[in-house]
């Protein structure tokens, strides 16, 4: 059985995942408004990934016989300084989410909740991927600098990203 403290913490994380989804949709809207359909597509795919992360937590809390309690989702920022600034904010956000996951793992260890500890390992691995994906894009953006042609090529490439739900074990 999950402790009350753990249920509250998992519900907080559920909210954080849906906030991430909301944040990335806002970034997609910014890109759409600034004629970067490929970057917008990448962010919409990220939105779908975050929904998947949230849904996975929803299922776990229910499977353990606890109660999901949804809270208000904070409003994300709407305006951004540049393409580079958006991806810098994305990396900072993912690093923040990694710290939230690490705190959850810490709580699971503290409470000797080995089932939740085991369950959270999926998120630990996922965060490595999340940070790496954004870091790779940031390196390319920095190399492209303000050369419109390179930016266009990167936009085109990121337009090919599609969401593939991970196979659930
Ligand atoms: Fe759910 O990983 Fe990003 O925030």
Report the major sheet: none
Name given to the CATH homologous superfamily:
Ferritin, core subunit, four-helix bundle
**CATH class category:** Mainly Alpha
Q: Segments where pLDDT lies below 50 for 5+ residues?
A: none
End-to-end separation in angstroms reads 21 Å
What is the count of helical runs? 5
What is the chain-wise order of helices and strands? HHHHH
Which structural category do the helix and sheet elements fall into?
mainly alpha
Overall residue-averaged pLDDT value: 97
Shape: elongated
Helix content: over 70%
**CATH architectural label:** Up-down Bundle
The CATH topology annotation reads as Ferritin
Give the bound compounds: hydroxy diiron-OXO moiety
Cα Rg: 17 Å
Protein topology:
Elements: H1 4-33, H2 37-63, H3 83-110, H4 114-144, H5 148-158
This protein binds hydroxy diiron-OXO moiety.
Hydroxy diiron-OXO moiety binds at residues 17, 20, 50, 53, 94, 97, 130.
């Amino acid at each position: 059985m999950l402790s009350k403290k753990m249920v509250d913490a998992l519900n907080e994380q559920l909210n954080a995942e849906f906030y991430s989804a909301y944040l990335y949709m806002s970034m997609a809207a910014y890109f759409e408004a600034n004629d970067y359909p490929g970057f917008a597509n990448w962010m919409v795919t990220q939105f779908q990934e975050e929904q998947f992360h949230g849904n996975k937590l929803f299922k776990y809390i229910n499977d353990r016989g606890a109660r999901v309690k949804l809270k208000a989702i904070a409003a994300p920022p709407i305006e951004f300084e540049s393409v580079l600034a958006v991806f810098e904010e994305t990396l900072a956000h993912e690093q923040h989410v990694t710290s939230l996951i690490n705190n959850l793992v810490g709580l699971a260890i503290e409470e000797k909740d080995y089932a939740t500890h085991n369950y959270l390992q999926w998120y630990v691995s996922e965060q490595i991927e999340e940070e790496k994906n954004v870091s790779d894009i940031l390196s390319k953006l920095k190399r492209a600098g303000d050369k419109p042609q390179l930016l266009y090529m990167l936009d085109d490439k990121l337009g090919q990203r599609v969401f593939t739900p991970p196979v659930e074990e």
